[in-house]
Amino acid sequence: MLINIKGKAVRKWIYALMVFITSIAGSWMMYEIFSESGITVLEVVLLVLFSITFLWISAAFWSAFIGFILQIFDIDPLKLKRNKHFAGQLDNVTVKDRHAVVMPVYNEDTDRIMAGFEACLVDLQRTGQLDHFDFYMLSDTQNPDMAQAELTAWNELCQRLGALSENIYYRRREKNTHRKVGNLADFCQRWGYQYESMIVLDADSVMTGECMLTLVKAMQQNPMSGLIQTVPIPVRSQTLFGRFLQFASCLYCPMLATGQAFWQTDSANYWGHNAIIRVDAFIQHCGLPTLAGKAPFGGDILSHDFVEAALLRRAGWDVLLLADLEGSYEEIPSNIIDYATRDRRWVQGNIQHLGIINGKGLHTVNRLHFLFGALAYMSSLVWLVMLVLSTIDAVVRATTETVFFASNYSLFPSWPVVKTEYIITLLSATAIMLLGPKLLGAIVALVRRRDQFGGGLALMTGALIEATIAIIIAPLMMFYHAYFVLNVLVGKNVSWDAQGREGRMVPWKEAFKRTWVASAIAIAWGGITLSLTPILFWWLAPVLLGLLLAAPIIRFSSSLYLGKLSRSLGMFVSPSEVEEIPALRILRIRLANVQHQDEILLSSPLMPPEQWQDMPEQSFEFLSSSVEMPIQRLASDNKQQ
């Protein structure tokens, strides 16, 4: 079905006006609070920092609010018509050409990646359309033992699949040059000529056969589309933290994605996996350069997905987000330490985008993706600096004698003025914009899909507990993100290793090792404010308590026992637990019955014939005049036909 997006410019202006009007109003109130008694240099800095953070939370709130309106009335965010859902609309569309499903892996758990790979293949085979697809496991594994385990498991998989193994391939690179970017580029340059499109999976991805077919058909029906992104929903979490995060994602992500799709229109973002990409467009326009200079802005492009979406859009291809397409799943870190470790990599990649935000020819929305991606992490540093500067300001005021007569000739005293009404209004507005999306997401789920969360009571109870936990862990995540941003800004690189996915309980030693600095700062901070400015201490109490109890929070939230207990009590119930999807059932059964043969005859995997295609390196300094825009290509194809 052709996706006809109307009013693109109007949508962006509506969204931009709501964000900026709110931001200006908040900044003005903060200025009024500061200026009544004379604004200091310190308060000017605070005002600037506040304006940045208020802009960020305003953008997030209004995107969520738009998503809420569209979802509550079941309106498609792209077409702005009553939602009929893509899977149903494309049932009669015939799959044409050939398509690849690729899973790049790097030093991953062998049993998990093979089981996920098999689950996707078998579920697609159930649709009867497997003949149009080839599956590739693209290994960048450098650990020799893991590489040997992959080869053994691959041969076992081929034996188990029998005739279905004709559609699967395994390739391992000896040197993982340019990481995942180089891995996918190697596939496209050597075998991309055979395929119209490729569905990119992550090592922990699972997609249903219906979802993959829908992506292929949607791309066929929309010849201007270069990339179509789904919304990956977390599954299989077992620890308390994992289940909390999984529940929150299932509850809020569809609404948030709907709001994003509304204003992004044909310039959506790419999250690196669980998406379909037009191979020819990717080859011609997504050859990533090595950026000049040193870290954090130079070197290999780390968060390549945002950049690839921007390059496709720059070349004239549509990048779409199908917020309502179901059947796209992923797994998430099981504890706060692993979650923060993953964020450390993303912090560096997103900040690097600021170095190319002014790249030649980039679409405005893609520039916003770069900016918002960086602000998502840098805002933590800004919040922390604001809290520190506010503490300094309060301590200075508490230890300085108030001057009522600024001049010897003054007839009247200069009384300090506190605009209480502005303070209350601003605090209330900030709280609403921070917590409002959670309430809106819960309302949508209560109205539209309460049964998927185990009923209305389980849904609302889980939402209330989730909001509480989110507030408790927010100070620790703020501390981690601020620390990561500082590391990146001073040029300290991070290794991009495989992330931990399976549930584990964090040992006390590791928990204290990763949190003692934050806890020590909280003790000193609390002691100073309690003795000098007790009112500020009680305002800071939630932040200080979260930092002080960081180690126990990490330890107990990573508990598998508490995760299972929460499940037995009906807490944090997610849709994948209420009704198990066939593809996830295949994955579960396969992992529960992993058996390796004692002796197996290993054979080198066979690959299709190669036909090399150059992948031109793109530039952010200029646009190549030889690049053929997709509209020109389509016109040429129609003329030839």
Structure, briefly:
This protein is α/β, with parallel strands linked by helices and 641 residues long.
Structural features:
641 residues; alpha/beta; 7-stranded mixed β-sheet; 22 helices; 10 strands; 7% strand; disordered C terminus; Glyco_trans_2-like; transmembrane; transferase; glycosyltransferase
Please tell me about this protein's structure.
This protein has 22 helices and ten strands. With 641 residues, the protein is an alpha/beta fold. The two termini are 22 Å apart. Strand 2, helix 5 and strand 3 form a beta-alpha-beta unit. The strands form two sheets. Strands 3-2-1-4-8-6-9 form a seven-stranded mixed beta sheet, with helices on both faces. It has a three-stranded mixed beta sheet with strand order 5-10-7.
Main beta sheet strand tally, sense and closure? 7 strands, mixed
Query: Strand portion, in percent?
Result: 5-15%
> Strands across the major sheet, in which order?
3-2-1-4-8-6-9
Q: Structural class from helices and strands?
A: alpha/beta
Distance between the termini: 22 Å
**Helix share bin:** 55-70%
Mean pLDDT over the residues: 89
Low-confidence spans: pLDDT under 50, at least 5 residues? 410-417, 635-641
Shape: globular
Work out the helix count: 22
Question: Helices and strands in order, then pairings?
Answer:
Layout lengths: L7 H28 L5 H32 L13 H4 L9 E7 L4 H16 L7 E7 L4 H18 L6 E5 L6 H13 L5 E4 L5 E2 L1 H13 L3 E5 L3 E2 L5 H25 L10 E4 H7 L18 H11 L3 E4 L6 E3 L5 H17 L11 H36 L20 H29 L7 H34 L18 H6 L2 H17 L1 H15 L1 H8 L2 H9 L6 H4 L3 H11 L37 H11 L1
Parallel strand pairs: 1-2, 1-4, 2-3, 6-9, 7-10
Antiparallel strand pairs: 4-8, 5-10, 6-8
